[in-house]
Specification:
The chain is mainly beta and 235 residues long. It contains three helices and eleven strands. An eleven-stranded antiparallel sheet has the order 6-5-4-3-2-1-11-10-9-8-7. It is globular and about 50 Å long. Keywords: Membrane, Transmembrane, Transmembrane helix.
């Protein structure tokens, strides 16, 4: 795809990566080099239970799929993430500080990767890097002014909308998703829901010609007083 020069693409590449990478979970950053040389990445969330809903284009049909995820973090940012509703319900991934492991709905180990302290989030949306980048764009005025207000998972949020014309959409997208992408005319719009205290990003949406093709929104945010070590073990 031709590289777009807009700020929107610089930010939305995270959502695009999620959309196009048909792996179930993404590592924010994995170091497989010498553990002693790996530079730790400070996790963005610790001692938290988070539920979020993701809607994205199906890999098999011209339609959106909806999944609800639950993620629990301990005090070091280690985590377990699981699909609790939607396609692939029951699949999960765990990072215990040493290994990142993926499991299917039956609890069968599908993949494991030796990982360093640099694994800090199960999805870019929950990573420190993503949140800090969005907040910096807002601070620098790259998203313009607040377009409205919303309540996301019980948190007050400001709504920012970034509109950009787009002359190039991957041909495979046009072919596979004709109801979302047009052969000749595409206009994209990104919406970000940012906590009013500017502490975190609570949601993001991508639309083409007014039609939603990707979204992720917090559904529940909970601070944990204790963490059960068994959460970092397969069921």
């Amino acid at each position: 795809m031709t590289k777009r020069t807009s700020t929107w693409i610089a930010v939305a590449i995270v959502a695009m990566a999620i959309l196009l990478a048909y792996n179930f979970y993404l590592l924010n950053k994995t170091q497989t080099a010498n553990e002693d040389k790996a530079e730790p990445v400070k996790p963005f969330y610790t001692m938290s239970r988070i539920q979020y809903v993701e809607k994205k284009l199906s890999t098999t049909e011209d339609a959106l799929e909806t999944r609800t995820y639950e993620v629990v973090f301990d005090d070091k940012g280690r985590f377990r993430t699981e699909v609790i509703d939607g396609p692939s319900e029951g699949t999960m991934a765990i990072w215990d500080g040493k290994m990142f492991r993926e499991y299917n709905a039956d609890g069968k180990l599908l993949n494991e990767t030796e990982a360093s302290k640099s694994v800090s989030a199960p999805r870019p949306f929950l990573s420190r890097g993503f949140n800090e980048q969005i907040l910096k764009f807002i601070e620098d005025g790259d998203f313009g002014q607040v377009e409205g207000e919303a309540d996301i998972a019980g948190n007050a949020a400001d709504v920012f909308v970034k509109k950009e014309p787009s002359s190039t959409v991957p041909k495979e997208w046009i072919k596979q998703y004709p109801s979302f992408f047009d052969k000749d005319d595409n206009a994209e719009e990104a919406t970000y829901y940012v906590a009013s205290d500017r502490s975190k990003v609570l949601g993001a949406e991508s639309r083409n010609n007014g039609k939603l093709f990707y979204s992720v929104k917090m559904q529940k945010l909970e601070t944990l007083d204790t963490f059960d070590p068994n959460w970092l073990k397969a069921k």
